[in-house]
Design brief:
Layout (H helix, E strand, L loop, with lengths): L9 E10 L3 E7 L8 E2 L2 E3 L6 H13 L9 E6 L10 E10 L11 E8 L10 H10 L5
Parallel strand pairs: 1-6
Antiparallel strand pairs: 1-4, 2-3, 2-7, 5-6
Length: 142
């Protein structure tokens, strides 16, 4: 007999912020999983909040950088089982490009926030390398 129950899916949102000169904004995670590893700014979607609003909020909370929602476009959803060791997590990713890297001021869940050249990325948490590859190649599965 098979079960029709599935684990609860947790909704998150991530922000891919690129600069026109070929850099990407990353944060160093303060908490497990992947404590001390580099990742995209992002986090849980609050009740009554859209994925886009969560991405904009998390970006501001974790980096001190505010990019207006109208500057973002939706890259896609990432929901592969096992993408997060805490359980079943689905993230919707939004991306924006800024004219020049703005100076980050890490806060909340970030130990550090920094711009990295796209051709010299550190080791990344979760499936964020795949997400960045998709964002810089023009879309999910491109």
């Amino acid at each position: 007999m098979t079960s029709n129950t599935t684990p609860e899916t947790i909704r998150t949102a991530d922000a891919v912020v690129l600069s026109a000169d070929g850099h990407i904004l990353l944060i160093k995670r303060r908490w497990a999983p992947f404590e001390g590893c580099w990742a995209l700014p992002g986090g849980h979607v609050d009740a009554g909040e859209s994925n886009l609003a969560a991405a904009v909020r998390e970006l501001a909370e974790e980096t001190g950088i505010t990019v207006p929602a109208r500057e973002f476009w939706q890259l896609g959803a990432y929901d592969e089982p096992g993408r997060d060791p805490r359980g079943r997590y689905e993230t919707v990713v939004h991306t924006a490009t800024v004219a020049e890297p703005l100076t980050p001021a890490p806060a909340t869940d970030a130990l550090e926030a920094r711009w990295f050249p796209l051709d010299d990325l550190p080791e990344l948490a979760f499936d964020h390398h795949r997400i960045i590859t998709d964002a810089t190649r023009g879309g999910v599965g491109a």
